[in-house]
């Protein structure tokens, strides 16, 4: 476990410090994202605190956008699936898992069906109406399932923001 000061203990709280796996946490620029996901999984409340960054004269940020965009993007995708598994399957089952799963399935089907539509459009210079209808149905289903899953997710987490 990392050495934590008394000030950090007062801000985070002893229960948070004992619950979070600090050694398994992401160690680079994506650490705040990792921490927020872990706090969400354990249903800890968080609040936004405005902070003014202090820089020394001539100091430059070490962030290289081209390098971190993929690593933080991958971290967010990985943590999303970890949160779905931990929070909504293992700890307390929630049906939003089915909505996300169907949204993902229909999104994949949409890509395949639209590829087929464009293939027939290019190769045969016509679009079979049943293919176009299936592609649009799949797109609408993917959109609705994903939006409902996000809505359920927001509702399940609405009590986790501390009032200021």
Please, could you describe this protein's structure?
The protein is built from six helices and no strands. With 164 residues, it is mainly α. The protein starts with 5 loop residues before the first helix and ends in a 7-residue tail after the last helix.
Instruction: Report the oligomer.
Output: single chain
Radius of gyration: 22 Å
Provide the residue-averaged pLDDT.
86
Order of helices and strands: HHHHHH
- In whole angstroms, how far apart are the ends? 30 Å
**Share in β-strands:** under 5%
- Give the low-pLDDT segments: 1-10
How many independent structural domains?
2
Q: Keywords for this structure?
A:
single chain; mainly alpha; 2 domains; extended
Give the SSE layout:
Blueprint: H1 6-12, H2 14-19, H3 31-41, H4 65-91, H5 96-124, H6 129-157
Helix pairs in contact: 3-4, 5-6
Brief sketch in words of this structure:
The protein has 164 residues and is mainly α. The chain has helices at 6-12, 14-19, 31-41, 65-91, 96-124, 129-157.
């Amino acid at each position: 476990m990392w050495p934590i000061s008394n000030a950090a203990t007062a801000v985070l709280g002893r229960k948070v410090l004992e619950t979070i796996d600090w050694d398994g946490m992401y160690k680079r620029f994506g650490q705040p994202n990792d921490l927020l996901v872990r706090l969400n999984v354990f249903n800890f409340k968080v609040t936004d605190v405005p902070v003014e960054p202090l820089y020394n004269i001539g100091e430059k940020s070490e962030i290289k956008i081209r390098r971190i965009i993929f690593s933080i993007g991958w971290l967010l995708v990985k943590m999303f699936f970890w949160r779905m598994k931990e929070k909504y399957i293992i700890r307390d089952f929630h049906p939003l898992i089915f909505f996300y799963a169907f949204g993902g399935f229909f999104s994949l089907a949409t890509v395949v069906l639209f590829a087929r539509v464009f293939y027939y459009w290019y190769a045969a210079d016509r679009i079979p109406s049943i293919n176009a209808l299936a592609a649009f149905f799949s797109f609408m289903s993917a959109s609705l399932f994903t939006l409902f899953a996000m809505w359920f997710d927001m509702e399940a987490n609405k009590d986790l923001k501390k009032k200021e």
